[in-house]
Amino acid sequence: MTAHVPHGTAAGSAPGAPPPAPLPWRLWTVCPSHGTGFAGAHPADGPGYLRLLGEHCAWAERLGADAMLVYDFWQALDPWTAAQEVLARSRALEPVVAVTAPLSRPATVARRVSSLSYLHGRAVHLNIVAGARGTDLGLLGADPTPPDERQLRCAEFAACVRAVLAGRPHESTHYRVHAPSPSLSPSPSPSPSPSPSLSPGPLSGRTPRLYAPASASPGFDAFAPLLDGCLVMAKPYDRLAAETARLAEQGATGGVALIVGIVARETSRRAREAAVAAYGGSRRDALLRKLFTDGLTSTQHRATLDLAERSEWHDDCLWYGAGRVGIDTPKLVGGYREVADALLRLAALGMTTLVVDLPADPAEYAHVARVLDEAALAAAAPAAPAGETGRPA
Description:
By secondary structure, the protein is α/β, with parallel strands linked by helices. Helices cover about 35% and strands about 15% of the residues. It contains 12 helices and 13 strands. α3 (about 105-120) crosses α5 (about 150-165). Mean pLDDT is about 80; it is low at about 10-15, about 185-200 and about 390-393.
């Protein structure tokens, strides 16, 4: 799978230049938060947020992204509201909406997916999560599910959503539905007799894909085969290789969507200076990190925290030194070609979708574009002879 087209600012975008080479991965970006609680300071007023979201959507499409990941933090904008605005402010982006299974009903989720797809003529995908913080679930009135059973609960949720979208009944430990498909496809002709299902299923060509964070928790073996892809936070090469191998053993055949921040400049030194200036951290960041990580059950976030405690740098340019690491993902920090080479190596280890984590400022996307251009050129170049890397000194 490749991104549509690049990428914005390098030689490939000059007038009369040949079209840039395709990238060896699908590209997503991340929907910005509406407030200042997560991922940087953003406008707290509605009009200001919508302007910012429009800027992020425009950059995403300029980079060649085909989807935008919409998180679900209780303190942030409702993810379905955010998804609606992503659809309204873009030409082709498809939202990947986080759904916390213990707090949601499959039939309601299926209806929202079908309704948004019908109104905007685009697929709407799901990121099914068990809830990163178990304490929040209880406070919000979620059904009490033991921690060891949360991934099994997510598997039942995913199977039920698919059944409702297809107009099939579903019955499992936690869910029992006999509702018709919520698809709003127009019927070719009036039904000669009353029928509980008015359409054959989701709109043709717009079938939602189901994703979930990869997990080392019990029960993920049952969940993984139901997914179209697994979300994974960036990790050192050896850890990522082991994780992709484990996912394959669990039956996850849809590929890996790798979430990673990117801070790139002309030189590695300038990139590191920019990363520290933007993400170096403050007392407030430390407090937010502590509040978020207390009671954390997500194995992806836990792995990030563990790696951050071991070292600030891994694999030369994978940085765990940001003040909000554990909330945010680690970041690739370096020169444009250095970061591009790191991405290509991650793709070789199993990354099929690159999810560019939310930057501190939309202006960072111009630098991401340079990295993507470098990656496209490197991917299209003939293999270097043995012993030659082609990388600048």
